[in-house]
Design brief:
The chain is about 45% helix and about 25% strand. The protein is built from 11 helices and 11 strands. The chain has helices spanning about 5-15, 20-25, 30-45, 60-85, 100, 105-115, 130-135, 205-215, 230-235, 245-250, 280-290; strands at about 50, 55, 90-95, 120-125, 145-150, 155-170, 195-200, 220-225, 240-245, 255-260, 265-275. Strands 3, 4, 5, 6, 9, 10 and 11 form a 7-stranded mixed β-sheet that branches. It has a two-stranded antiparallel sheet with strand order 1-2. A two-stranded parallel sheet has the order 7-8. The N and C termini lie far apart (about 55 Å). GO terms for molecular function: DNA binding; DNA-binding transcription factor activity.
Length: about 300
């Protein structure tokens, strides 16, 4: 059984026409028919009902079709892997990142990667750290930028610290703020202050709430449930203040106040599965990420 025969068989099964299948595969119709007959002889069963003006799958053909598609798909995956080795002219990287990192760090890193490897496809999934960890564990991502340490019940992953990012307070432009005119804020300043809060499961929400609780109070939310862009918009509209990463605040144009020492921080790490080595393109993206942190 040859891969070429399986491609011809799949083409006929999908077009239900020998001539159109031959055109799709860029081969003469007699050659395609001969290969199909050779495959049928090897398998000992007819794969198609051949009637004038109609081609249909036999039971044997219907059983073979999903297997043939899977074999061809696996072959394509193997071809991609080999091409990656050839100077990364082709390939694919599936990167996961939190919305705040997609709005700050990730665009510059992907620009550097794409300039060097224009033939490599980049697929970015934006989500919370918990969602990204789950997608990594299931094999749906090659790399992810997540907030560490991971939850105790998280799957086993290999992580490497990328950066320790300062968290700051952003306020409405010209609106009320508990820290307006001050050089630094304290978490205690947020007591009874309306906060614009991220949705549940968002790492910044958990960090902010934990900091407030450690300071001895429960935070008050003016509005909650948003992603990063929504939170910035709510603050800009004067609905309250919010705690965000410094890289996001720097691009927001909103009044920004750092927290007094020791401040608030979060650790961003690059993660991948420990039982499977990432594809070469993903390893190269990880290297660029680690190099890029030196400029932050």
């Amino acid at each position: 059984m040859q891969l070429q025969q399986l491609r011809y068989f799949t083409a006929v099964a999908e077009t239900r026409h020998f001539t159109r299948a031959a055109e799709r595969e860029h081969v003469s119709q007699p050659s395609l028919s001969q290969q199909i007959k050779a495959l049928e002889r090897e398998l000992g069963a007819e794969l198609f009902h051949r009637a004038r003006g109609h081609i249909g799958l036999t039971d044997a053909g219907a059983a073979l079709l999903p297997l043939a598609r899977r074999i061809l798909a696996d072959t394509e995956t193997a071809r991609r892997e080999v091409q990656e080795v050839a100077q990364l002219r082709r390939g694919r990287v599936r990167l996961g990142a939190t919305p705040s990192l997609c709005a700050s760090l990730v665009p510059d890193v992907l620009r550097t990667f794409k300039d060097r490897y224009p033939g490599v496809d980049l697929l970015v999934h934006e989500g919370g750290s918990r969602d990204l960890v789950r997608l990594l564990a299931s094999g749906e991502l090659d790399l992810a930028l997540v907030i560490t340490p991971l939850q105790a019940d998280a799957p086993a992953l290999v992580t490497g610290e990328l950066l320790r990012e300062e968290l700051v307070l952003i306020s409405p432009p010209g609106g009320p703020s508990p820290v307006r005119g001050r050089r630094a804020a304290r978490v205690a300043d947020l007591r009874e202050v309306p906060l614009v809060m991220f949705r549940r499961g968002y790492d910044l929400r958990e960090l902010t709430v934990a900091a407030c609780q450690q300071a001895g109070f429960e935070p008050v939310f003016s509005v909650e449930g948003g992603e990063m862009d929504a939170v910035l918009g709510f603050v800009r509209a004067g609905l309250g203040v919010a705690v965000v990463p410094s890289m996001v605040a720097a691009r927001s144009g909103l009044p920004t106040t750092p927290f007094a020492a020791p401040g608030l921080h979060r650790t961003v790490s690059v993660a991948h599965r420990g039982d499977v080595s990432p594809p070469r393109a993903a390893r190269e993206l990880e290297r660029i990420l680690m190099t890029h942190r030196g400029g932050l």
